[in-house]
Amino acid sequence: LQKMMKDNNLVRHLDACETMGNATAICSDKTGTLTMNRMTVVQAYVGDTHYRQIPDPEAILPKTLDLIVHGVAINSAYTSKILPPEKEGGLPRQVGNKTECALLGFVLDLKQDYQAVRNEVPEEKLYKVYTFNSVRKSMSTVLRNSGGGFRMYSKGASEIILRKCTKILDKNGEPRVFKVKDRDEMVKKVIEPMACHGLRTICLAFRDFPADAEPDWDSENEILSDLTCIAVVGIEDPVRPEVPDAILKCQRAGITVRMVTGDNINTARAIATKCGILLPGEDFLCLEGKEFNRLIRNEKGEVEQEQLDKIWPKLRVLARSSPTDKHTLVKGIIDSTVGDQRQVVAVTGDGTNDGPALKKADVGFAMGIAGTDVAKEASDIILTDDNFTSIVKAVMWGRNVYDSISKFLQFQLTVNVVAVIVAFTGACITQDSPLKAVQMLWVNLIMDTFASLALATEPPSESLLLRKPYGRNKPLISRTMMKNILGHAVYQLTIIFTLLFAGEKFFDIDSGRNAPLHSPPTEHYTIVFNTFVMMQLFNEINARKIHGERNVFEGIYRNPIFCSVVLGTFFAQIIIVEFGGKPFSCSGLTLSQWFWCIFIGVGELLWGQLICTVPTSHLKFLKEAGHGITKEEIPEEELPEDVDEIDHAEMELRRGQILWFRGLNRIQTQIKVVNAFRSSLYEGLEKPESRSSIHNFMTHPEFILEEDEPRTPFLDSTEDEPEPDGLQKR
After folding, report:
1. Which end of the chain is more exposed for a tag (fewer CB within 10 A), N or C?
2. How do beta strands 285-288 and 315-319 pair?
3. What's the pTM value of the predicted model, to 2 decimals?
4. Is 29 a catalytic residue?
5. Catalytic entry in 15, 29, 212, 373
6. What cellular component terms from Gene Ontology apply here (predicted)?
7. Would you say residue 696 has pLDDT above 80?
């Protein structure tokens, strides 16, 4: 976890780390995750003129410029501000909402001072504020004029604000009529070109209310109408330079990246193309939230999984989406049974409304910088740098954890198989185990403690991203691992039994098979023990690879713990053999005998290369082990009655609850039976005829225990329940 923390992944739930290694889909936000979240205004449309760069302040009429400055300075959170750079020559610091900071930066680029306006109009003087939210997608602030009447400044998504505008300021700074055809023309000539360059378009507008009658401020639709457009600005949020490469790695790793954003579809499509989410010539879908809901919902407004299954496989960009749309998409992908395997979905979110989607996802990522406390609480992992590349690091760590467990299992099972067969067979044939008790303890120490430390500390590498995800039901022991386990077991058993029954002739030493019970340790059995340990030591190097890779030494120096464990075990074995004596049942060996033991151990590496040449596909008889539980494997009687209304992600939880209830019911029944017999025993002991022997209790036919049907207890049941009907006094 500390190493993941260095990779900017703060893990809140440990199981999420391994789950992330099997992720097949990532639904990512755009702002701040794929982009730098440092927004700047790069284009503007003011006074019937489209400026491709920031205009010169003198090119804008003073009264129009004054409206822009007041509209930006007042109609934004006063916590948003631009501060001087921390280091000389650096960029100014943006504090608060990044979109508002971009507009404030636009005011500063126009050589104006927004802080002077805020000092003149403090927050206490604001008459009414309509704050920004995901439904409104705009913000408005109302001021009371000194001469009576009110003025409202508005800003928001350009296509939404422009629909509510009936006038627009012309090149003379005078309002002129803004009709539907004018709006369509503006969208076509100004907004769409901006959006196609990946710019977020924001419209600034205002409205004056007369002094004769105060409007009904609660009637928001009437208030936010009849606006006058001041300007439309294009805000650029540059794509993080490392993101396209990170998304390419995800795609190679079999992970589909989808962008879920609140921006308009043209902006989202442009950013997705820059990131590599959308590829030219590919048949992918880009949808807006409204169109998405129209396609997946029936007449009653209910989500239909069948309709959703037709859309999500090709969906790559969901624009103008609400948090509800994100939750619907995530739930639909998780519950879907389309394809060879069920999807494992990761989601990023930063807002309070993202909580349900983060909870629903298999792995929820919250933004550490821009994320709210609610989002962080609902998440499994917090990205401390809000960067998409940190998600790729989480995938690498997740796959590394899974592979580390498999490596250890492969090594441990090989040692177990060989040690058990040697100890059992040797004891049956020679009447004495070739591996003594203390020697087996040392082998277990190598096998369990040291091996787990060595194989589980392998750092993740880029090669982990070159394979597809395992999926939800992938067995822990694959057929390749089974081939390695059995293949190395055959080699080791052949060597051990050859040394056991013919070793004394090869080395020209006394046989240890017929030695008396308390005789001193023999060289023969010491060679058997030493060769066994050497083979395990070199097989530990083989166990570093579980997918049939030939180069078992690749990256071995990146793991100093592994090198230390192997070398430490080797030197400890030398000390045990040469100086262990009777406690370890060892006798000192000559240099020649040591070289033979090491040579046979090195043979493990050569044998491993030979095993790699045997195609796993030809070994049909090998079985996998450690499958996950699928829906088909759950007996029908254990499925709840309302199974159709329960999504697949909840199946395993329900099954676990049923098993828990059954176990609890058995314990309760046993306790009641014991209490019944105990109370009956005490009553019987008080009678004179039973004092002679408590066994008389068993002969009294006064109590009958009948088996009642097993039942599932409710969680709110108490211990004060009446005794079951099975215990009845006649």
Report:
1. C
2. parallel
3. 0.70
4. yes
5. 29
6. plasma membrane
7. no
